[in-house]
Amino acid sequence: VHRIPSRARYDRAFIDAVLDEGLVAAVGFVHDGQPFVIPMAYARLGDQLFLHGARASRALGVGASGAPVCVTVTLLDGLVLARSAFHHSLNYRSVVVLGAARELTDPGEKHTALTAIVEHVLRGRSSEVRPPDDKELAATRVLALPISEASAKVREGGPLDDEEDLSQPCWAGHLPLALMPSGPPVGDGPQAAPPAGLAAYRRPGSVVPGWARSAVQPPNPR
Ligand SMILES: Cc1cc2nc3c(=O)[nH]c(=O)nc-3n(C[C@H](O)[C@H](O)[C@H](O)COP(=O)(O)OP(=O)(O)OC[C@H]3O[C@@H](n4cnc5c(N)ncnc54)[C@H](O)[C@@H]3O)c2cc1C
Q1: Atom 39 in ligand 1: which residue has the minimum CA distance?
Q2: Is the CB of 48 inside a 6 Å radius of any atom of ligand 1?
Q3: Which of 47, 91, 130, 182 is deepest in the core (most CB within 10 A)?
Q4: What is the DSSP letter of 193?
Q5: What is the pLDDT confidence band of residue 209, given thresholds at 50, 70 and 90?
Q6: Nearest protein CA to atom 45 of ligand 1, as residue
Q7: What is the separation of C-alpha 72 from the centre of its chain, rounded to a whole number of angstroms?
Q8: Could you write out the DSSP letters of every residue in 19-67?
Q9: How many other C-beta atoms lie within 10 A of the C-beta of residue 204?
Q10: CA 78 to CA 218: how far, in whole Å?
């Protein structure tokens, strides 16, 4: 049941766009009666969401057993500053995926999923670096969660103040937020130049709703 049904979205294109723009998933599961929510990288390929990690990872071990999991991805789009404390809010787009994952054991499938995760972080990166070898593949557990039971919610725009508060003397409005570099790339030893465009890194489709792309300026590194 959605408390604010008008904010709920179920169309796959919107769900996919949120999943493709996000970087971190909150992976929820229950182990021995204790709920956990663990942050993890992920990637979407078609109708599947991939998670990966060390074989020792409890989250992945529980997921591999077929136990139900809940994966949430949140894009924080802005602060909503209303004229009353009560109506302060956050602008966001978020997706919840429910279901049971399966462990990928086929090396080809694992390789595809791991490549998708690297590409999700930085497009084009997988062709620039050494791919995982057999030992690394064996040491990594990879789960695939079908995106069959999923929902999205969105809040955008300014504050929804009460009529009688509109004359309050304080500033009201909203501050768009986006994920962007907080400084130039920091190299690790002697090496080639950073990948083109890294300094201006943006998530795909990462334009705050209502904002022109050109308005998204990188912060001044000084
Ligand atoms: C942005 C981000 C991305 C990550 N991506 C991945 C990924 O793709 N794959 C991956 O395997 N791991 C990833 N991690 C690490 C992940 O969150 C877990 O710490 C790790 O997977 C071990 O999980 P576990 O279930 O085995 O925890 P356990 O080793 O069983 O954890 C023991 C206890 O440590 C605490 N704990 C575990 N993880 C965290 C945490 N992140 N923060 C605070 N307390 C914690 C909990 O209380 C838990 O009960 C990521 C972490 C972050 C913050």
Answers
A1: 38
A2: no
A3: 91
A4: P
A5: very low
A6: 38
A7: 8
A8: HHH---EEEEEEETTEEEEEEE--EEETTEEEEEEETT-HHHHHHHTT-
A9: 9
A10: 16
Q: Is 146 helix (H, G, I), strand (E, B) or coil?
A: strand
- Check pocket membership of 59 for ligand 1, CB cut-off 6 A: yes
**pLDDT tens digits, 156-172:** 999 999 999 999 999 99
What are the tokens at 43? 């990637």
Structure confidence at residue 222 as a pLDDT band (50, 70, 90) = very low
Q: Which residue has the tokens 């990288």?
A: 41
> Whose CA is closest to 176, among 133, 221, 144, 207?
207
Tokens matching residue 16: 């996919």
In this predicted model, what pLDDT tens digit does every residue of 11-48 receive, in sequence order?
899 999 999 999 999 999 999 999 999 999 999 999 99
Beta bridge partners of 174: 80
Which residue's CA is the closest to the ligand 1 atom numbered 23?
A: 57
**Ligand 1 contact via 31 beta carbon (within 6 Å):** no
Residues in the chain: 222
**Nearest atom in ligand 1 to 23's CA:** 1
Answer whether 157's CB lies under 8 Å from 174's CB: yes
Does ligand 1 lie within 6 Å of residue 38's CB atom?
yes
CA-to-CA distance for 222 and 219, rounded, in angstroms? 9
Measured between alpha carbons, how far is 31 from 83 in angstroms, rounded to an integer?
Answer: 43
On whether the CB atoms of residues 80 and 73 are closer than 8 A, the answer is no
8 Å CB contact between 91 and 77: yes
Place of tokens 């990462």: 206
